[in-house]
Amino acid sequence: MSDEDHEPTEPTDPEEPTVEDDESKGKLRRRARRTDTQPRLLTAARLLRDVLPGDSELGDPLSTAGADPSHVLAKRLSETAPDRPSLSRELGLGALQVWQSLAEAQGRGRGDRAVAILFTDLVDFSSWALDAGDEAVLELLRQMGRAAEPEIGARGGHVVKRLGDGLMAVFDETGPAVEAACAAASAVGQLEVAGHRPRLRAGVHFGQPRKLGGDYLGVDVNIAARVMAAASGGEVLVSGVAGERLEPERFSLKPRRRFRAKGAPKDLQVFVAEPGPERPERRRATP
Fold first, then answer.
1. Domain region containing 46
2. 274 strand-pairing partners
3. Is residue 13 part of a domain?
4. Are both 147 and 94 inside the same structural domain?
5. Does residue 216 sit in the same domain as residue 268?
6. Is residue 6 situated within a structural domain?
7. What's the CA gap between 225 and 219, in Å, rounded?
8. E-strand spans in the chain?
9. Are strands 166-171 and 158-163 parallel, antiparallel or unpaired?
10. Residues 6 or more apart from 232 whose CB is under 8 A from it?
11. Is residue 165 located within the same domain as residue 49?
């Protein structure tokens, strides 16, 4: 038989994946997945984030509501397989945390004007809403808006955004922000919907956030949100920076000794603010 009678053999493509290649890649993927969820490495990554500069809770809803690049990236990272612990996610958020902190320290995350930042929300709203039903929930939110927002506008505040059962507002100064918060908490406390008496909490911080469109972004916004989240129902908390700008004859401040909030500066002082004996609304009402 001549060589011409043999079928020609096609050369093997060196770039074509083989069964062995697929098996090797599968092993690498499984090994990477196991490493990504290893408890000891996850614990180490979370401890590292606690000591790194910046917001160690970057990635949660309080810190990703803006359109800042670090917020957008953090939100996308936190939404990646949210039900599965992930080392890569923690390391990615840690890098963004440091990036945001460095940007703030160099002034790139700060705006041109300092403002008082107010955050509010309703205590235990989510658990009540699960049983109350949509109609009662909407009615409560309507009533809360009618009770709280006029108190903000009457004192020169501007509602930046509504956040479900709460809002964010800014003021030129701390005094009007705290007045508005106290008045709003009192007004909302008088409401009753489907047998439920809502309790509003608030937090005020003074800083220089960056303004982007109609929103405000940056570490100072995160701090205000953390201060609010530490308040009890009917309580108004202020940061030490905000408290220094309050007139002592108009407000009383009591230190919150057990304040702890991830994402807030470790040396942050927080006070419970209450109207002083000479309440502003009473003074205005006197002819």
1. 25-105
2. 252
3. no
4. no
5. yes
6. no
7. 10
8. 110-122, 158-163, 166-171, 200-212, 215-217, 236-239, 251-255, 270-275
9. antiparallel
10. 123, 199, 201
11. no
Q: Quick one: 156 and 207 in the same domain?
A: yes
The answer to whether 184 touches 159, Cβ cutoff 8 Å, is: no
Structure tokens at 118: 């107010």
Q: Are residues 281 and 158 in the same domain?
A: yes
Q: Do 153 and 192 fall into the same domain?
A: yes
Domain count, the chain: 2
- The one-letter code for the residue type at 98 is V
Question: Using an 8 Å Cβ cutoff, are 259 and 230 in contact?
Answer: yes
Among 55, 51, 45, 50, smallest CA distance to 100 is for: 55
Print pLDDT tens along the chain (287 aa).
Answer: 555 555 555 555 555 666 666 677 777 778 877 887 888 888 888 788 877 776 777 776 655 655 556 667 776 777 766 667 888 888 888 787 777 667 665 555 555 789 999 999 999 999 999 999 999 999 999 999 999 999 999 999 999 999 889 999 999 999 999 999 999 999 999 999 999 999 999 999 999 998 877 888 888 998 999 999 999 999 999 999 999 999 998 999 999 876 766 667 777 899 999 987 654 444 333 33
| Count of alpha carbons within 13 angstroms of residue 187, beta-carbon side | 17
- Closest to 237 measured CA to CA, from 271, 269, 275: 271
Whether residue 84 is found in the same domain as residue 119: no
Question: Which residue's structure tokens are 């479900």?
Answer: 164
What distance lies between CA 44 and its chain's CA centroid?
23
User: Coil, helix or strand for 165?
Assistant: coil
Give the span between the Cα atoms of 95 and 73, in whole angstroms. Answer: 11
CATH number of the domain residue 120 falls in:
3.30.70.1230
37 with 83, same domain?
A: yes
